């Protein structure tokens, strides 16, 4: 067995901001009696307590969410996090996440559309489902989903468990059924043993339950934390983390001219709300009604969840339809004029933060410089080399 300690170190001068050191022995996948062993250690960014629960630990815990020091303030706390999962549940979820056995024909896994090497997106304008079926929207990143309260572009789900049922059981995506999924997993001896290990409180002879599948995948997705970017080091007091161009871009981002931070609010870089900004659809396609449909609210027509900008550099193309290929094109859209891309036959209620800031080319370039400082993949999880099903990971 090979172990490697991954340790995050940060030293912030002038402030009492010493980061805890989290040792995460990452085990190479080892078969013991033909069963992959589950990791008993928490992922980086989490601390194991006496109840065998992984509790989130980060420097933003120093700051209050109730005393927000202005829009875009650096010393702002995070919202409530989903944590408290056992390391065994997290590691079981990791195997499930990468295993195409979860799909109807064994060809698509969660990682197919949420590839860790592509910012937990897939690099496509809109994702591809079962049988190469083109889906309508882009795959959103999963970084920091433990802090989110709305899921899907149209915000129709309020929990990770609710969200994952969509792709699992959609005929256009993973094309499985609850009955087939649970029967498949219960037919695999490795998974039967792993579920018994991850859920020791239940009878090991009891069949695997759907709720256990949902919980394990949720536990893994909730462990995907990205809070150690160049920006974060700057926010915690190490001002040499950003260069002058990046600082200039941050000042544009936070300004009441550009108003980026009013929707993409630090430190998550999203306010977790639905916003109507009037982005054009690609190739002349009709307007995507967005949140209007699940909320049955005409005032939300064309509205989509404000995405986090964490690791945005890694998740091109951009917007719900993948309309813009680059960050530069994306920021240009916001300065081209309020509602300039809305079809003539549509009367959308454009968000009041979208107006005509008339940013210069230099200001737009500096914005892009700043957005790239939000990249942090230091806690990227390991893709399994072998899967309990015997299939190959689909990444």
Core attributes:
395 residues, mainly alpha, single chain, Cytochrome Bc1 Complex, Chain D, domain 2, two-stranded antiparallel sheet, disordered N terminus
Describe this structure in words.
The protein has 11 helices and 6 strands. Helix 1 runs antiparallel to helix 5 and helix 1 crosses helix 6.
CATH architecture of the largest domain: Orthogonal Bundle
Helix content range of the residues, please? 10-25%
Strand order of the largest sheet: 1-2
User: Biggest β-sheet: count, sense, barrel?
Assistant: 2 strands, antiparallel
User: What is the residue-averaged pLDDT?
Assistant: 89
Q: Estimate the global geometry from the Cα principal axes.
A: globular
Order of H and E elements? EEEEHHHHHHHHEHEHH
How many DSSP-defined strands?
A: 6
CATH top level of the largest domain is Mainly Alpha
Q: State the fourth-level CATH superfamily of the largest domain.
A: Cytochrome c-like domain
CATH topology of the largest domain: Cytochrome Bc1 Complex, Chain D, domain 2
Number of domains: 2
How big a fraction of the residues is strand?
Answer: under 5%
Distinct helical segment count: 11
Q: State the low-pLDDT regions, or none.
A: 1-28
